[in-house]
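Reviewers of the previous submission asked for a worked example of the structure-prediction workflow described in the proposal, so we include one complete record here. The input consisted solely of the amino acid sequence. No template or homolog information was supplied to the procedure at any stage.
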Amino acid sequence: MLLEILATAAAEGEEIKNAFGFWEALEQGGAVAYATVIILAIMSFGSFFILFTKWFEQRKIMSQYKKLRGTFWRASSLKEGATKLEKDSAWRQIVDDGVVAEEQHQKMTDSLEAHDWLHGSLSRSEDTINSKLADGLSFLATVGATAPFVGLLGTVIGIYRALINIGIAGSASIDKVAGPVGEALIMTAIGLLVAVPAVFAYNWLQGRNKRIAELLHAFSTDLLANINSAGTVKPTYMTATSTQTAAKAAAKPAATTTTVKK
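From that input alone, the workflow returned the following structure tokens.
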């Protein structure tokens, strides 16, 4: 007898638990609840897709820059240095645009206009790369700004249904309002879970893009100086390395020299 009572109570408890589950709440919400969850799911998938693809793209550019510092500026010419860079890379694009601009630069008679043309060509190349890196970030910003309101729409619908159930029943019993209110809270939570990662991803990727833009501008400036000086001017870190190497080479024989006493 006792076992039957316990089994019945357990079955009733399971039914109550299932009646207020996540999918049951969606079923009670109907098409609006399902549409809200689907929209938020698409937003979440798109946010994480952009996060990982842009992170991989940024990581690749920064890795290429580290290799560039040790190989490109050791070449005897820009064309030779370009062959050491990966094809279709951001750095190769700037160098190729710089080589084309240099060829056109030599055809201009006015030196001031030639310099402006060369500087403008490299700047356009930078802007093109920065625009490509910024692709997709607007989607993250949109998701971060709108996902809470999409969830709030489901919340409003859930509260509205709870009020209707109260009006029909004539009393605010827990079994009448628990489902719609639970659905409303779920929609709010999902909206926040979608929006918060999108905002963090946008700010993080935007900060990395600014760092890459600084590196691109510095490289473009060094390239401009190298072209205008016919290859004699190179970045300061290359000059500093060469100076330190020369100083060590000059100091080494002096350190090994022994004094011969007469």
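The mean pLDDT is 76. We consider this example representative of the routine output the project will generate in years two and three.
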